[in-house]
Amino acid sequence: MTTIINVPQSLDDQSFEQIFAQVAPLPPEEKILIDARRTRWASPFGFTALLSLAQTRLERPALAVPETEETASYWSRASFFNYAESLYEISGKVPRRGRSENSVLLEVTPINGTEDVHTVVENIQHRAQAILQEKLHLEASVTMRFTMVLSEICQNVIEHAGCGGWVSVHAYKFQQRLGRWVVVISVCDAGMGFRKSLELAQGARINGGWDDGKALEETVIRGATRFRDPGRGQGLAGVRKFTGKWEGMMSVRSGTARIAIIPEWGQGLPLSEGLPFFPGAQVQITIPERIGQP
Question: Read out DSSP for 232-257?
Answer without folding.
Answer: TT-HHHHHHHHHHHTT-EEEEEEETE
